[in-house]
Amino acid sequence: TDLHRFIKALPKAELHLHIEGSLEPEQMFELAQRNNVTLPYGSVEDIRKAYDFNNLQEFLDLYYAGMSVLQTQQDFYDLTYAYLKRVHADNCRHVEIFFDPQGHTDRGIAFSDVIEGILDALAQGQTDFGISSHLILSFLRHLSEEAAFETLAQAEPYLDRIMGVGLDSSELGHPPSKFERVFAKAREMGLKLFAHAGEEGPPEYVYEALDLLKVDRIDHGNRSLEDDDLVKRLVDEQMVLTVCPLSNLKLCVVDDLTDHPLKTMLAMGLKATVNSDDPSYFGGYLNDNYIQTADALNLTQEEIVQLVKNGFEGAYLSPDRATELM
Ligand code: ADE
Ligand code: ZN
Fold first, then answer.
1. Looking at the DSSP assignment, which residues form a beta bridge with residue 137?
2. Which ligand approaches the C-alpha of residue 282 most closely?
């Protein structure tokens, strides 16, 4: 349709993307072979069939299992380069991607192999596709505060190439307050601060992310809509929400895309953006998220433009890059 063409033609930014969640089944097989890893799947079709989730944890179990094929610096390079090539086709011009180092270091992979593979691919993506990028180190919230501090220490040699820290993995039972001190340390180190909050967790977790972690963006934030005072505050502060519609559908945060709160969020004045989260697991990259949501919610061109604009405004673009893109 015309609206689909309109969406595809717009230059866009992606602010909520886990690089390990862009591992496609085909690449999972290829890397398993290359590294002699045995997968619990017989075929690419078997993998796709297994991607049927009732909640966040069911996804996370397969997401961490899938990581087992990522072993060498080259693997992390290939993973990241494939993602950039794919979103270049979606006319994506700027990305801010999460990586989960603890998902790898806990398997005996060197932190340096993980981050250097990713960073080399990001540099090549700038050269080959003109995509600007930032890297965000995300802590796994089901692990301890101490483990997060150890991970932050491993990042010290790379601080000039890490834009911020994030908080992801199993939300319920692991409130932001658990990581108040490590976020304070990251803030002192000059890093930007992000946290998944209000995906499955209650509005209280969003308050904690704001008040205790002092985040610069909220990842997801859907359940904020249950609390009118919280909505008012997020609007007043123009806090960016990195919303992920197809992720919300696949993880049963919403029952149907027609029930997705994105249009309501915009109507309320919330600074919502559209992102893919873990595109390989949730069945769609950036344009798929825009297009399927636009169709389900009858988004107007003006609403699409607002979402895209929010993406660039919510990004941490260099002044020169901002002039080019905005
Ligand atoms: N890790 C990767 N994707 C995630 C998500 N949507 N929520 C929490 N942790 C994640
Ligand atoms: Zn996420």
1. 99, 165
2. 1
Q: How far apart are CA 169 and CA 59, in angstroms?
A: 10
Contacts of 308 (CB under 8 A, 6+ apart): 10, 11, 12, 13, 274
313 is catalytic: no
Q: What is the mean pLDDT of residues 307-312?
A: 98
Half-sphere exposure of 61 (CA within 13 A, CB side): 10
Separation CA 24–CA 66 (nearest Å) = 10
With residue 271 as reference, give the H or E element that holds it. strand 271-274
Active-site residue identified among 199, 200, 208, 303 = 199
Measure 246 CA to ligand 1 centroid, in angstroms: 13
Query: 15 C-alpha vs ligand 2 centroid, how far in Å?
Result: 10
In order of start, what are the domains of the chain with their CATH numbers?
2-317 (3.20.20.140)
Select from 199, 252, 289 the residue to mutate for testing ligand 1; criterion: most ligand atoms less than 8 Å from CB.
199
Q: Which atom of ligand 1 is nearest to the CA of 63?
A: 2
pLDDT in tens, 18-51: 999 999 999 999 999 999 999 999 999 999 999 9
Per-residue pLDDT of 94-137, as tens digits, reads: 999 999 999 999 999 999 999 999 999 999 999 999 999 999 99
pTM score of the predicted model:
0.98
- Rounded CA-CA distance 32/50 in Å is 17
Which residue, by CA, sits nearest to atom 1 of ligand 1? 169
Which of 61, 99, 168 to mutate for ligand 1's pocket (most ligand atoms within 8 Å of CB)?
168
